[in-house]
Amino acid sequence: MKKLAYVTNTDSNDISIVDIEDKKELGRIPVGGSPRGGMAIDKKGIYGYVSNCAGNTVSVIDVVSNRETGKISVGNAPRGVVISPDDNFLFVSNSGSNDVSVIDLNIREELVRIPVGDNPRALSITPDGKYVNVPCWGADSLSIIEMNYESPEKSRELYRIPLGKDARPYHAFSDIDNVHVYTANTHKHTISVINILDLKVEQEIKVGYGPRAVISDPVDPFLYVSCEASNAVSVVDKNNWEEIKQIKVGPTPRGLKIDKPNEILMVSAFTRTLNPELMADANSLSVIDLRKQEKVGTIKTGLGPCSINIYDPSLINQQTIDSKKKEVLS
What we know:
Order of helices and strands: EEEEEEEEEEEEEEEEEEEEEEEEEEEEH
Strand order of the largest sheet: 3-2-1-28
Low-confidence stretches: 324-330
Number of strands: 28
Structural class: mainly beta
Distance between the termini: 21 Å
Number of helices: 1
Shape: globular
Number of domains: 1
Mean pLDDT: 93
CATH topology: Methylamine Dehydrogenase, Chain H
Radius of gyration: 18 Å
CATH superfamily: YVTN repeat-like/Quinoprotein amine dehydrogenase
Largest sheet: 4 strands, antiparallel
């Protein structure tokens, strides 16, 4: 089985299935209205979950048969999803109700909603699962939720870190050290480097215009930032916390995903532009070679591609996949 990318297409209400090796779209999965955020995929490689901003639901995707199998009701205008490391819980940021839904994936029901700052957007979780980090666009802050997995209803917002007036953070990325979180501050045109144990902003880095998402290379000392108004990806050197390069990509980039074994970065071109010179790369993924830090290709997708995730069957237990196939066929 090939490694695939799943791309949420906000304007065509579906998910593109992309063959990473052949660099082409294989098909699409229809889902609810205005899907946002990357599809969260469980470690067994069986189910994915996508937030439908216009439908107040999360779509359940069978990634073996590539079809929607159900929906879970959540708060208003969900923007992002992330799964706990043990695969038991799903967290959903609800931008319209200013809270985070906690869903028990064993029964696929919402257990509780945790209040956070105004208009929460694309959240993330520390690799150890202890903290859910929520950028709050309307509050210009990062909400840190401390999880209680034994009694989820006792989970709470531990602290709210201010990011400055009109920061408008859109995305928070939790690094592998379980300490640092990076926020893309869309209106300040910066990235904040936040120490969530010391509860402080350690650095603020100027990048391109309108940063929407940020991701850290898991091995090399770089951050990559999609800068919507610059039609570029900023490269930040983590050794000195400075932008060292801007890579031109498709129009109004948003989502980012690194495929480290292949040393590529995929960037979605959300395509909020009227510039005819940019339309050739509209509604697509830009492919960046991480060794050269240069764009090397384009893959067409659905309309308004927002975010990306990767499904790598080589990392999944093959017995689990075969068992699921038999279940689908029976």
